[in-house]
Amino acid sequence: MTTLERATSRPHIADRPLLEIAGVRQVYRKGDSADLVVLDDVSLTIREGEIVGLLGRSGSGKSTLLRIIAGLLQPTSGQVNWCGAPVSGPCEGVSMVFQSFALFPWLTVLENVELGLEAMGVPAGVRRRRAIEAIDLIGLDGFESAYPKELSGGMRQRVGFARALVVHPWLMLMDEPFSALDILTAETLRTDLIDLWIEGRLPIKAILMVTHNIEEAVLLCDRILIFSSNPGRVAAEVKVSLIHPRSRTDPAFRKLVDEIYGLMTQCSATERHERRTSPGFPGTGIGMTLPRLSTNVLSGLMETLASPPFNGAADLPDLAATLQMEVDDLFPIAETLQLLRFAELAEGDVKLTDYGRRYVDASLDGRKRLFAEHLLAFVPLAALIRRVLDERPSHRAPYGRFSGELEDHMLEEQAEETMRAVISWGRYGELFGYDEKTNEFNLENPV
């Protein structure tokens, strides 16, 4: 039987749900500050025989949801049922593959793979046999006695897959398992995984994977759940009916990728509308999180858009392919340009505004002036810093004056990233200076 015949003959989705999630909400308490809502009203079902992808931006709560499903984190509210029973701790029959490999460097490949079975009390002889079978299945036969430092990144991740498979789970969770690998290695692993799946050689019933790579989701998944951010919600569901093996050059494949880009753009627009219209909604005003992007990157994208073949407007998938960027890298840049009114995002396209074209055509000094004007008009934190500096006789203010206020709205690490972004942007626009030695903003030398 050929691979294609096996793909079409495999039962696609069985009737019995393995996993049912209803109304899950995850909130992190912050003392006297506003609570941080990571997940809100998340509901989904995973059935036997399917690969489901959670697709969304970093920070949308996808990895948090995986930890809840695995029983490693108790949700603030909502229901998680595994095979019909409520989840109250680590679930038997669920395993996870991590982005960072998470191998023990002092253990051999065989010992790393055996570890889960040892924790389950499986006898040594059975442990060894099953571990060797798993190692052979994922293509590392002959490396049983090697240590992680002797392996390439792709080989280390294969060990991670073997360790997850050796316990014969019903559901395998994958948290961006290919994102730490180079492009060619990641492609090889994806191909090997899907071949093993459609041939029925994997000892699992379903896969739930987190990704921010749209093409990866379309290549592997039967269903794709698109997550919005701040807080994380299931904003849309896309069913993928393409037969395995799938080709990136297939017009139906490209069409689906374009549709998903459009849906993600639409989700982003919906989030911005909610922030504008909902009092106290996180991510507005001073509480707006900013990505730490250099002005060179922002300028570079505008210049790319202004040049042929795009001439001011581009389809996001085409732009991502040209720049060899993933959605998680491209969207923050495009959205920052939209925040600053230098570009517009709609239906999977990005288009320079008149301001964006003026910026591209301007001299260096002209670019700086225009950037400063838009920072003051559209980035409340930048406007606050400048106003405080103008009002103080010393024209100086400590870093903590603003970071403390941000931490009322976001996590400490988000506040740090936001502060570093506005420092860089303010310096470029010559709105203010910043002294790293004293950790103070100033108007003495705003360059």
Fraction of helical residues: 40-55%
Derived from helix and strand composition plus strand pairing, the structural class reads: alpha/beta
- The total strand number stands at 16
Neighbour order of strands in the largest sheet: 6-7-8-3-9-10
Q: How many H/I helices?
A: 16
Main beta sheet strand tally, sense and closure: 6 strands, mixed
Distance between the termini: 68 Å
Average pLDDT value? 85
Shape: globular
Radius of gyration: 24 Å
Tell me the number of structural domains: 2
Strand content: 15-25%
CATH topology category name of the largest domain? Rossmann fold
Low-confidence stretches: 1-14, 273-283
Second-tier CATH architecture of the largest domain: 3-Layer(aba) Sandwich
| CATH level 4 superfamily of the largest domain | P-loop containing nucleotide triphosphate hydrolases
Provide the CATH top-level class of the largest domain: Alpha Beta
Give a written overview of the molecule.
The chain has 447 residues and is of the alpha/beta class. The protein folds into 2 domains: 3-264, 3-Layer(aba) Sandwich (Rossmann fold); 365-447. Helices cover 44% and strands 19% of the residues. The chain contains 16 helices and 16 strands. Strands 6-7-8-3-9-10 form a 6-stranded mixed beta sheet, sandwiched between helices. A hairpin with a 4-residue loop joins strand 15 and strand 16. Helix 9 (295-306) crosses helix 12 (354-361). The longest helix has 27 residues, at 251-277. It is globular and about 75 Å long. The termini are far apart. Residues 1-14 and 273-283 have low confidence and may be disordered.
